[in-house]
Every structure is written in structure tokens, then in C-alpha cells.
TrEMBL record:
Pfam families, per the entry: MerR_1
GO terms of molecular function: DNA binding
Organism of origin: Nocardiopsis eucommiae
InterPro entries hit by this protein: DNA-bd_dom_put_sf, MerR-type_HTH_dom
Protein name: MerR family transcriptional regulator
């Protein structure tokens, strides 16, 4: 099992996810909207503020695949 800085089943906000992935938050939104994250990063929209929250373990896995490590 990987040593995640946070529990892999916790969710993170788009600002943190984008920073870890080395992309802009707008890029992350586009990826989610167009389906690029489907099957790669689990995310859900917050019921009141509409932000997408991303599963921490998935974000770290994708960052590792992209060669972005923190």
C-alpha cells in the first residue's frame, strides 16, 4: 500500500488537487467535465457550493503517473 500524505479515501478540494497535479484548477474542471478523469479519479460535486471534490488516493496516483510528486 502506498504511503499517502492523507488517507487515500479522503477527498480534496480542486485547489489542492490541481496543485498536486501541476495544473490549473480550470484544467482540472475541464478534465472532469469532458470525462478525462472518468475511471481515473473519483470526484463528486459538493451539494451546496458546486465544487468538485477529488479522491485523494486517485489524485496522488495520477500525479505519480504524470511524473508529478510532492
Amino acid at each position: 500500500m502506498k504511503d499517502y500524505p492523507t488517507h487515500p479515501d479522503l477527498y480534496m478540494d480542486p485547489v489542492d488537487a490541481a496543485e498536486i497535479l501541476g495544473v490549473a484548477t480550470s484544467t482540472l474542471r475541464t478534465w472532469a467535465r469532458t470525462g478525462r478523469l472518468d475511471g481515473i479519479v473519483d470526484w463528486f460535486p459538493h451539494p451546496t457550493n458546486g465544487w468538485r471534490y477529488y479522491r485523494a488516493g486517485d489524485v496522488y496516483d495520477l500525479a505519480e503517473e504524470r511524473g508529478k510528486t510532492t
